[in-house]
Design goal:
Elements lengths: L7 H16 L2 H7 L4 H9 L18 H14 L1 H5 L2 H13 L2 H12 L22 E4 L5 E7 L10 E7 L5 E7 L5 E4 L14 E9 L4 E2 L11 H30 L16 H33 L3 H33 L12 H9 L5 H14 L10
Antiparallel strand pairs: 1-2, 2-6, 3-4, 4-7, 5-6
């Protein structure tokens, strides 16, 4: 039986409680590449995957700030588990924006029952990240046929439904919601990244997969007016990076307090009293707290735009999210490295697996380059130029 969360406060309590459980074996899951099936089942059963379902369909419809904080809490415990449902929430949002009433009724009920969305969006070997070759062609007897190969399909291996991004004959983008066990659909667990090892972000192959017309959503319409699709999706990515940074800081502090030795010239008995260690820990804490504050401000901007969606409010939300992510990305990588700076030689022992924080941060922050976010922020600040509506801002 899947629990239905009632409001923001309950969602945050549930996330904190689950994060405490997930943190206990996060290092072991990473080291052994133990896929988190049971952990995801707990995430589903507890109701956290349904917190953005609109109230008129029975959900809590929590704020973007709350969703971001849920992701931050989960990512601090295990960023693999936090990343897996990122697309789940994004494709709930697609239905909210472009789904028909019947589609919303059906799929939101699925989500409230604990069903999970994966994703089959990105493709490898194309000209760039938005050069999609997967085709959605009208079938002779009605409905459509899907053909293509997707990569980086985070969540697909654990999903009940796999949203597939594909182009129609007129090149317009659509999302087809396909059952995980649909004939012609194959999920290959071939993800072998150095970090985020247990996200199972592998390959999805689609060979003449039949899709009924009522399982297809016209995604291209999302970008024809002011929209928060990109801002919301990027907010969750930023939350994962902020969570990684916070989790790394917490583990670094614990290591210094219990295992690290002071440098002999410090004259101190404990590493935690070494003045240079204190200085560095303070610097890192400031960066993590700043990243958390920017994330919260970005969530508030998305919520403000949701309440009054205009070109101006959508642009402000996208810029706020871009600011948070552009700051958080290097902070997460720095914190993953700083564990060794603070912990000393012993912290580098492979059995401790402290390097997972850096590997996770470095891998996840490759999702889209922060340098382009800085470009769009600069154009917005100097010239009032709104960011483009391409879904990555």
């Amino acid at each position: 039986m899947t629990h239905v969360i009632a409001d923001d406060a309950e969602a945050l309590t549930a996330a904190r409680d689950l994060a405490g459980e997930l943190a206990a074996e996060a290092a072991i899951r990473d080291a052994e590449r133990r896929l988190p099936g049971p952990e995801l089942d707990r995430l589903s059963a507890g109701g956290l995957l349904a917190i953005t379902v609109p109230r008129e369909y029975g959900g809590a419809d929590v704020s973007a700030r709350t969703v971001a904080e849920v992701f931050r809490l989960l990512a601090a415990a295990d960023p693999n588990i936090a990343q897996i449902p990122q697309s789940h929430f994004v494709y709930i949002n697609v239905l909210r924006r472009q789904g028909t009433p019947d589609q919303r009724t059906f799929f939101f009920a699925e989500v409230l029952d604990g069903r999970r969305f994966g994703n089959a969006q990105s493709e490898a070997g194309t000209r760039h990240v938005q050069d999609y070759r997967t085709s959605l062609v009208a079938a002779p007897g009605g409905g459509f046929l899907l053909n293509g190969v997707k990569h980086y399909s985070t969540g697909a291996l654990f999903a009940d439904w796999i949203p597939v991004l594909a182009r129609r004959e007129d090149e317009t983008l659509h999302v087809a919601y396909v059952p995980r066990d649909a004939p012609g659909l194959t999920v290959v667990d071939d993800w072998n990244g150095m970090g985020q090892r247990t996200t199972a972000s592998g390959t999805v192959r689609l060979e003449d997969v039949a899709v009924p017309a009522d399982r297809v959503v016209p995604h291209h319409l999302t970008f024809q007016g002011p929209q928060l699709h990109g801002a919301f999706a990027q907010l969750l990515h930023a939350a994962i990076d902020v969570g990684i940074a916070g989790g790394a800081l917490e583990e670094a502090v614990a290591f210094v307090r219990t295992k690290a030795r002071p440098w002999f010239e410090s004259g101190q008995e404990r590493a935690a009293d070494d003045p240079l260690v204190l200085q560095r820990a303070g610097e890192l804490a400031v960066k993590v707290r700043a990243a958390e504050a920017l994330l919260d401000a970005a969530g508030a901007a998305v919520d403000a735009a949701r309440a009054d969606l205009t070109d101006e409010s959508a642009a402000a939300a996208s810029i706020a999210v871009a600011t948070a992510k552009a700051f958080a990305d290097p902070v997460a990588v720095e914190l993953g490295n700083a564990i060794f700076e603070l912990g000393g030689t012993r912290s580098s022992l492979d059995g401790l697996n402290l390097h997972r924080h850096w590997r996770n941060a470095r891998t996840h922050t490759l999702h889209d380059p922060a340098r382009w976010k800085i470009q769009h922020i600069g154009r917005y600040v100097l010239n009032g130029q709104p960011p483009p509506r391409h879904g990555l801002l």
